[in-house]
Amino acid sequence: MAHNQVIFAFSLDVAATEPFLQQYHVINELFLCMWDDAYGLHCNAFVHGGDMATHLREAHGIRGPDNLPVLCRWEGCNAPMNKESLTRHVQGTHLGIRYPCNTCGRVFTRRYGLEVHQINCP
Prior knowledge:
Elements: H1 12-17, E1 30-32, E2 46-48, H2 52-60, E3 69-71, E4 80-82, H3 83-94, E5 99-100, E6 107-108, H4 111-120
Antiparallel strand pairs: 1-2, 3-4, 5-6
């Protein structure tokens, strides 16, 4: 189990009927940064999900053009990608951030998907 994963101590019946108890995270939550430094030590800073790009830039030196190749240094990952994809990767893959529709409850992995959905959501 990942260190920043949440275990819910209630029945699945409650989780299915109460939208606020779903097992996903939202952008304004506080997360523990599990970025590994050159020595394999975790950052362990608390960061709001929406501030992750700033944190990666200021605390971990992720700077440069959007097409700069980088490796994700999140605990156990090492996935290669362009810098422009790193924040979205960390938020979606490692933090489990999702964007729920407040009208119908459908959940999206990207904010843009939610925005497009909301145009025609009943």
